[in-house]
Amino acid sequence: MSRKLLFLAICFLLSCAVFSQTLQILDAAGNNITNQSYTIAGLSTDGELYVDYGEIDVQNTGNKTIDVGCRRYELNVGNNTSNYYCWSFCYSPMGAGTQPVHNDLGTVDVAAGATDTASFKAAHKPAGFSGTNTYRFVFYNSADPNDSVYLDVVFDVAVGIEEQLVAGRLNVFPNPANSTATFDFNLSQTQADASIVIYDVLGKMVDEIILSKQADQINHSLKQFQPGVYFYGLKIEGVIRLTKKLIVAR
Q1: Where are the beta strands (DSSP E) in the chain?
Q2: Could you say which DSSP state residue 53 is in?
Q3: What CATH number does domain 21-158 carry, 1.10.1760.20, 3.50.30.60, 2.60.40.1090, 3.10.290.10?
Q4: What's the rounded Cα separation, in Å, for the pair 15 and 217?
Q5: How far apart are CA 81 and CA 128, in angstroms?
Q6: 161-185: pLDDT as tens digits
Q7: d(CA 116, CA 59)
Q8: pTM of this prediction?
C-alpha cells in the first residue's frame, strides 16, 4: 500500500472513531428521537411542566457498559422561570440564566445493549410566564465525550386564563388505554369553538374531537394510534388548554 493510501486509510479510521456513536435516545414508544426535539405543552399557571421518567430513554447500542454523563444547555428560556433535571441524581431548581450550562456531576452506567428508563427527568417552572422554552440535553460517553447525542426539550407554555373561562373538568379513562378511551369534560360556559385535541410527544396533532355540548362523556377510538405517550387538551377558540397525559398500551 502506498504512503498516500495508507494515510487516507488512517484518516478514515480516525474519522470513524471520532464520529462513532454508541448512544441513542428513544421516546416511550421506542421511536429513535436522537438529535431531535421533544415538545411538552402546558399553561403558564401550571406549577411545573416536566418530562418524566420513562418518557425519554437512553440506549447503549455498543458492546460494553458505558458511564453516561448528561449536560444541560439553556437555548431559549424565559426570564424569571426556573428549571431542574435528574440524571445521576436530581438538582434543585435553577433560575433561568443562573447556570446557562450545567454539567451533571455523576454518571449513569448503561450496560451493553441496554436501555436506561429510570434516570432522566427534566422540569420547567413557568412561574406565570408564557412562551417557548428550549433546553438541550447532551448525553455522552464519559470515557469518550465525542461519543454523544442530544435532545432539545421544548416546553411550549400558553397563557393561563381564569378558571371560569376554561373547562372545569377534563379527564380520560382508562389511562393507560387500549383501543378506546372515554373523555369526560365540563365547560363552565358554552363555547362556540371547542374541541379535544390529541397530539404526540413531538407536538404534532394526531386527532381532534369537536365538542357540541357544554358537558358530556365521549367514547373515542384509539385503534389508529401506536402504543406510546400522547397528550390531550381542550382547544378553545384556537388555544390549547388543560393539557394532560394519555398513555396508549396494547
Answers
A1: 23-27, 36-43, 49-51, 56-60, 66-76, 82-86, 94-95, 101-103, 108-110, 115-116, 121-125, 131-141, 144-158, 167-173, 180-187, 194-200, 205-210, 215-221, 228-236, 239-248
A2: B
A3: 2.60.40.1090
A4: 58
A5: 8
A6: 444 344 457 889 998 899 999 998 8
A7: 6
A8: 0.62
Residues with Cβ < 8 Å from 156, sequence gap 6 or more?
39, 40, 41, 42, 132, 203
Grid cell of 118 as nine digits? 429510570
Instruction: Please list the residue range(s) of the chain that carry CATH number 2.60.40.1930.
Output: 163-248
CATH architecture, range 163-248 = Sandwich (2.60)
> Cell 402504543, residue?
227
Q: What angle do CA 227, 152, 237 make, to 5 degrees?
A: 70
State whether residue 6 is helix, strand or coil: helix
Residue with cell 362556540: 192
Q: Which residue type does 61 have?
A: T
Q: What is the mean pLDDT of residues 228-236?
A: 84
Q: Say if residues 23 and 111 touch (Cβ distance below 8 Å).
A: no
- Residue at grid coordinates 381542550: 234
Residue 34 pLDDT exceeds 90: yes
How far apart are alpha carbons 115 and 30 in whole angstroms?
A: 10
